[in-house]
Structure formats: C-alpha cells, structure tokens
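As a warm-up, study this chain.
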Amino acid sequence: MGQTKIAREQQIAVFGESGSGKTVLLSSFYGLAIEQLLSGTEQFDVLADDSGEGRRLHQNYLGMKNAAKLPMQNRFSSTSYAFSIKRKPGTLSSVRKKAPDELRLVWHDYPGEWFEQESNGPEEETRRIDTFRALLGSDVALVLVDGQKLLDNAGEEERYLKALLANLSTQLRKLRDNLLPDGKPLVTFPRIWLMALSKADLLPEMDVIGFRDLLVEKAGAELNNLQGVIATFVEAPEALSVGDDFVLLSSAQFEPEKIEITKRVGLDLILPIAAMLPFSRYVGWAQAMRKGTDVAEHLVRVATPVAELIVKTKIPGLIAKMPGPVSYVVNLIGPDLMQAVLDLTGKKVLDMHTEAKAKHDFLTGTLTGFQLELDRGDVEKVLLRSRA
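Now compare it with the structure written out below.
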C-alpha cells in the first residue's frame, strides 16, 4: 500500500519571489489541462481534488485568456494544490487490479514574500515552518528566476541573481533549527532542485544552455552556497542535486492588452519532471551508496513502483533485502530495477510507449509518455538535465 502511494503521488515544491509568476504558472498549467491543450491530455484528465481551488485556477486562466487580466497575488498565503491524473472515462484499460488507474500531483506553492521579509511575529513564523514541513515529501523543487528582473538588470544580472540566491539561502538557514530540533538531518527532503527561468517569453533568444551559463557566470558562488545550505538539511548529501538541472518556463506570451495563453514554454514538462525525473536519479544514487541505509531505502521506495510498471514484474523483495550499514547497498538494486532505468532511454522508451498505448495500459503509457516529453525538452533546449 505504501509503495503504491509513493509511486502514484508525486509532489513538487515551487519557490520564487513575489511577482515571479508562480500563480500565473499554476493557473496556466491547470487551464491548459482543462482545455486539453497540455501535452498528454488527449489521453488523461487533470482534475483538481478541491473543486473550489480548481475553479479559482480556471477563473484565473480564463481572465488571462479572454480579458488579458492577470490574477491577483495572494500575499503571504500558502497553498498545496492536489491534482488527479485520470484515464478518460470510456477509454479502454488493460488494468484489472484493485489499485486505482491514476496518478496524482501535489503542487506546493511557498509564498515569495517569506523569502524577502522578516516574519511578522511568532504566529507567522509558525506558519512558515508548518508550510515548509508540508513540502518535505517533495522529491523535486523548482527555484524560479524572474525573466523580467533579468531584463531590468541587463548587463548587471549578478545584482539580481546574487540577491535571489542569497535570500533563499538565508531563509533556509533560519528555518533549519526549527525543522531539525534535534540536529538530525532528514531522510525525506526535496533532493532535486531545478533552476527555472520564469517569463522565458521575455528572453526569446535565450535557450536553456544560455540560462545555465548566465547563472554559473554571474552567481556560481551563490549557487554553490545554496547547495551547501541545502546539504545541511539532508542525510546522505551525496544523494542531492542543486542547480544541476535547468528549465525554461513561460505561462503565455504577454503583449499590450493581449495574452496569448497557448504560446507557452515548458508547462508540458511540469508533470514529467515531477513524475519521472527522480526515477533514474534515485536508482543511480542508491546504487552508488556505501552507507546511509535509511536514505537508500527511501530512494528505492520511490523508484521501485515505477520500475514495476515498466518491467511488468513485482519487485517485492527489494526493501526486505536492505543490507546492514557495512554491506554494499548496490546488492539491493537488482537486475529488474536497473533494467527499468536502462529501458527508459532512446528508441526503447518510444517502443514501450507505443506498445502500452496499443494494449490500453494507461499507467505505463502515461509514464513513458512523460519520459518522451523530457527527452523532447532536451532536444528543444527547454530542459537541461544533469548527466551525473
């Protein structure tokens, strides 16, 4: 039961200063999904678990689409939005199990103001801590870099980038003592931190490689410092990736009195990033470990259910076979799990996707479709994944 939940509920944490586009991004994502304009929605529906929240997001989207009206910012509010990705009603399915034929995404939106201003007393400080605790189940975090602020600081981008990363590092340090009261680092924590260029439509000449190079050139030391701060939160910091993956995001093309909502960049990658990016990374990290059994167990727990869908066989003994701290963790990986990682590359994943669709295998077809989207993002230079 626990494995199924982990496999089919992926969480993503989104960090960005006020005005960086988090609300617009989420509203566009959901609105495009509702209108079946998001990649994959010809095969599945994306439904908000809370219909009221879904209606507000859809209203935001329609305001942008029909009236060029940006949604109002909810200052200092924090919300986790849960979405179910379900097979469309009336379509065939090969699944005849008791397990639900669906995936879930939980999107944690951390208020940008909290990284820019001091807390307004103990009540707000408690809210900050509780909000951060809620997103600890995420495997992936997005750090938004505001394209408008890069334009505003053209030629001196380091002024903005250094301040952005320094503020994030400072606020994380302040949270750490409350999150780690006994000083013991966490096993479950976002371990993949992508740098995301929001409002990428404002910088049409910049591809993801140019974005990476700008960050490294102008704020490489601050990025290293952020990695160091985040490493203090986690057990086994060797299983951590901060600033090694990059993505371009644009909710729409914004023009005077007009918002072209269908001209987006990177929104089709949100679900694939949350669902599939941790998979091969976690298997590789677990295989390389020589200590840190609890972390290896967590990594394998996340990766195993996806592998079972890919290789079409149960891998029930993996967690039970966890070795002692002096044994080689590599022994727990096993050929099935490694084969699943190897299968999700090149033409193999396309063949698997085609076969899954022909067999009406919704979950495998959806996950392999997500992997194809990640590969397409690489080719189109919208996504840059670490090869480490």
